[in-house]
Structures are given as structure tokens and as C-alpha cells.
Amino acid sequence: MNLKHLVVALSVGVATLAGGIAHAQQDVQNRIIRFGYGLNEQSNQGRAAKVFADEVARLSGGKMQIRAIGAAALGSDVQMQQALIGGAQEMMVGSTATLVGITKEMAIWDTPFLFNNEKEADAILDGPVGQKVMDKLQEKGLVGLVYWENGFRNLTNSRKPVRSVDDFAGIKLRVMQNPVFIETFRTLGADAVPMAFSELFTALETKAVDGQENPFNTILSSKFYEVQPHLAVTNHVYSPWIMLVSKRYWDRLSAAEKKVLMDAAVKSRDFERKDTREEGARALAQLKAKGMQVTTFSPADTDAMRSRLTRVNASIATNVGMDLWNEVQGELAKLRR
Ligand code: TK8
């Protein structure tokens, strides 16, 4: 090799090295990520959003910044989903139930009494079938990262104690914007009114609706006990929350940035489930202390409710597809063996 060749080789080497460093720096860029959610900052959702934000900052060396914005200040679940799809907002966490208009398979999670306990929910949601349902979002412009726990839902209302399935009659009940929930509560005889969560407290306070259903944690953090004297422990369905990223945004991220978001999402999920369960275990006593009158469905009353709702299952199976329905039932059967 003569001197000229050596100089050329060296300069190519230096250029490659410089390119490599520049590339590494570009792997994680300065980014501000708006992360919206519906509950207030003091809720389980707010606490986990903070864990997520802190972890993203830590893993990215402060370059990626999560701006967590609660209380539906960026919009209701449905509005935020549309903002993510359009690319006007980067991230959110919200109920899978409000996604059914976008991805019909999400309705599988709305099946009344699908899971018997949180352990079953974790195994199914974090397993292959949970991932498969999540992956369906991509063709609609959303990327699902992980499921959080919203939890088992219970009924509150301002009209009367609800002790059995017959007591649903005549209750004007706010439900999520989701056809399965509408059908479920109409089947039970309630007057089901779909409404965004962000409008719910005012609707209860002004008696535009008589009642609603949500996990104990939310009844507590959203102060529904102030306007809802009656609580019925029905545990009629387990609601997941799901962390979503705008696909338009996701596709612009480097592999390193995607990994930061994914790793932080997993950490926030693990924190959120533990925190939610700890709070949930204390919440019923706290709601009683706040003055709520609590009725608990007996096993016989729960069975009556469950069998009244069997026909809702048939329409869910048709809507999500028999294959998915059977796969979930098969996985559950395996877990229960
Ligand atoms: C919060 C909602 C809420 C849900 C509902 O944005 O709407 O009742 O349970 O958690 O997603």
C-alpha cells in the first residue's frame, strides 16, 4: 500500500467512525412525548403514569421526556385514540373497551365474568392471545405496548340498593362507549346510556344518570361516593387498560427509542398492577367509611346474573370471531385444569 492509499484508507476509516458516533447519538434524540389519561393524578392511573415518565427519563438519560397529562385534559379515551391515529398526540393509556369501534377483537375482554381472578387476567393478557389482540391495532394506526389493570367492575347508583339481578330494572346507567356493555346492561333491564368517562361525575351529580360501574379504585379516586350512596359488589367484568402509541410516531423512533418506551411500559405495568391491587384491597372499607351502603351479590345471585348474560356471549363470539373466542376459552380451560 503506498502513502496515497494509506491516507485514503485512513480518512475513510475516520469518516466511518465519525458516522458511527453521530448515528449512536441519533439513536436517542430529544423528544417530548404527550401521554394522556382519563383519571386524575391521584388515581392508580396517575401514579403509574408517573412511574412510566420517570423510567423513560432514566433509561434515555433524560433525552426522552414524557409529559403525562391526566383528567382527560387531552380528551376522552375515544378522542385521544383519534389523536394518536392522526399523529397529533404520541401516547395514552385507556380502557380496551373504548377501542372496540377501532378494533372489534378488543370486545373479547368485555365478556361478562370472563376472568375469575387477576391471575387469570394476567396470564391471558400477557400471553400469546393478549398479544394477538393487541397486534390487531397496528393496521388501524395504533401500537399497543402493555395491558394495565383497571380491574373488576362494581355497580354504584343513587336510587336504591341493588341485591340481585332483578334490581337493575329502572336504573339509568352510564356505560362505556362500547356495544357489549350496552347490551349487557340492557339485558339486565337497566337503561344503559353510553357516555365518556370525562363527563361522568357531572352526569351523576346532576342525576342525568342514576349510576355507573367501575372498579373500587376509581369509585374512590374519582370521588363517586360523594354522589352515589349505593354500591353493589358484582365483579361483573374485568377491565384492562392498554398503553398505546401513535403508529405514525412509533415508526419514526429508532430501535433504541422503541426499547426505552417498551421497557418503561413493562416496568409501569408491573408497578401499576401491584399498586392497584394493594389499593383495591383497602378500598371497600374506605368506601364504607365514606358512607356508601354496600350490598354484596350472593353466589346464587351472581349465578343468576351470569346465566342471564349468556346470550351476550354469543354475540361477542360472533363479533370477535369464533377462532378468537375458542382460543381464549381454551387458554382459560388450561389455566383452570
Ligand atoms: C378512563 C376510563 C375509565 C373506564 C370508564 O379514561 O370509562 O369507565 O373504566 O377507566 O377508561
Q: Describe it for me?
A:
By secondary structure, the protein is an alpha/beta fold. It has one domain (3-331): D-Maltodextrin-Binding Protein, domain 2, CATH 3.40.190.170. Helices cover 49% and strands 18% of the residues. The protein has 13 helices and 11 strands. The strands form 3 sheets. It has a 5-stranded mixed sheet with strand order 2-1-3-10-4. Helix 6 (179-187) links the parallel strand 6 and strand 7. Helix 2 (44-59) packs antiparallel against helix 10 (255-289). The longest helix is centred in the last third of the chain and has 35 residues, at 255-289. D-xylonic acid binds next to strand 3.
Short note summarizing the structure:
The protein is an alpha/beta fold and 337 residues long.
Please describe the topology of this protein.
Blueprint: H1 3-27, E1 31-36, H2 44-59, E2 64-69, H3 77-86, E3 91-95, H4 118-126, H5 128-135, E4 142-152, E5 154-157, E6 172-175, H6 179-187, E7 191-194, H7 200-205, E8 211-214, H8 216-221, E9 230-233, E10 238-246, H9 247-250, H10 255-289, E11 293-296, H11 299-308, H12 310-320, H13 322-336
Parallel strand pairs: 1-2, 1-3, 6-7, 9-11
Antiparallel strand pairs: 3-10, 4-10, 5-8, 5-9
Helix pairs in contact: 2-10, 12-13
Bound molecules: D-xylonic acid.
